[in-house]
Design goal:
three-stranded antiparallel beta sheet; eight-stranded parallel barrel; TIM Barrel; 13 strands; alpha/beta
């Protein structure tokens, strides 16, 4: 079905196509019988796929990355499509519009997207209220990504801390985990928050706020693929020192190296974060480095170029506990989480693995973790 619909969607500009897709999911979001019917065809039911991490149980390791549903409008629909967790947002303390259009671009030759949306959302409190209305009975954990409001300057740092804490307070009661986004390239100066001297007070402030309440929620940090290795080490060390629950690796990249898309088209598009298949090699390398630095217990969520069972396995084999998809959902359609999960089940059957962990540990990652066809 998606093979028929995809050319029609791709004939529209990306922002319009995204709006059409979100409207198409509205009946699933709001009609319980439709959700049940869809879930019966897509949801992972093999217990071997389950992942237990951060005190949570994920029915499958395949999750939805932040950015596809910034205002938490379709959480129940995503779960019905078979995602093992759903990360909503990124939300900010202050409601804000998208950066000026055009701000979203397809690179079909590279199976990639470029966006410079800049955290458009209705505000953390508003989005949290919507999640509260709809999360009852959701079969998969809900994550909420929080970022810096555009109107808040990075100096003085106290203003940034207050801004993040306001968002955290708004969402913590409705989230199973919270992801601190300090790595989007589309909010001015945001990536400066990845420096250890900035990350330390931010992590400490959020952890202190988390401890202050009766309900502690796991906190992770999302990092950029463009950081130098020593900067990754420094940021991960701060996350480990603060006892964050884990790391999401990686966000989009500002690199344009090795693309098949003509240079003229890349120049025409301009700035923004690149996601999709070109990100896979660096995302794998960062996940591997993060896992080695963190040790076995914290959660690592791998993002960047996951579009198949093979790429998901590659990410798991270099150290991810969970993986997320975004760009591949645009290129491969709504049955992608089901396809990846079924592929993992088949792989376990072939290998005689009694769990996903046993499958992942059963082989050394090939080609440095990169499937040959990727």
């Amino acid at each position: 079905m998606y093979a028929i619909l995809k050319p029609l969607l791709f004939a529209l500009d990306p922002a319009t196509a995204h709006g059409v897709a979100m409207k198409a999911l509205a009946p699933v979001e709001h009609v319980g019988l439709l959700r049940a019917a869809l879930a019966g065809a897509t949801r992972a039911t093999d217990g071997r796929l389950a992942v237990k991490k951060m005190g949570l149980t994920f029915p499958s390791p395949i999750g939805l990355a932040a950015g596809l549903d910034k205002n938490a409008e379709r959480a129940r629909a995503w779960a019905a499509l078979g995602f093992g967790h759903i990360e909503l947002g990124t939300v900010t303390a202050h409601a804000q519009d998208a950066n000026p259009a055009p701000n979203l671009f397809r690179l079909p030759e590279d199976r990639a997207l470029v966006n410079r949306l800049g955290f458009p959302n209705a505000g953390a409190a508003h989005v949290a209220a919507r999640i509260a209305e709809r999360r009852k009975g959701l079969p998969a954990p809900i994550g909420v990504s929080i970022g810096k409001s555009r109107i808040v300057p990075v100096e003085p740092l106290s203003g940034v801390l207050d801004d993040y804490i306001a968002s955290f307070r708004a969402v913590r009661s409705v989230a199973d985990f919270v992801v601190v986004n300090v790595s989007s390239p589309n909010t001015k100066d945001l990536r400066a928050m990845q420096a250890a001297e900035s990350a330390r007070p931010l992590f400490d402030a959020l952890v202190a706020e988390n401890e202050r309440t009766g309900r502690r929620v796991p906190i992770l940090v999302k990092i950029a693929p463009d950081l130098a290795d020593d900067a990754i080490d420094g940021l991960v060390d701060e996350a480990k020192r603060a006892r964050l629950a884990g790391v999401v690796a990686t966000n989009t990249t500002i690199s344009r190296e090795g693309l098949a898309t003509p240079r003229e088209r890349i120049a025409e598009i301009g700035a923004g974060g690149l996601s999709g298949m070109p990100l896979l090699p660096r995302a794998l390398a960062v996940v591997k480095r993060v896992r080695a630095r963190l040790g076995p217990e914290p959660c690592v969520i791998g993002v960047g170029g996951v579009d198949s069972t093979e790429t998901a396995l590659a990410m798991l084999r270099v150290g991810a506990d969970l993986v997320q998809v975004y760009t591949a959902f645009v290129y491969k359609g709504p049955l992608l989480p089901r396809a990846i999960a079924r592929g993992l089940v088949r792989a376990m059957d072939v290998e005689g693995a009694s769990s996903l962990g046993e499958l992942v540990r059963g082989h050394e990652a090939v080609a440095g973790g990169i499937p040959a066809h990727a």
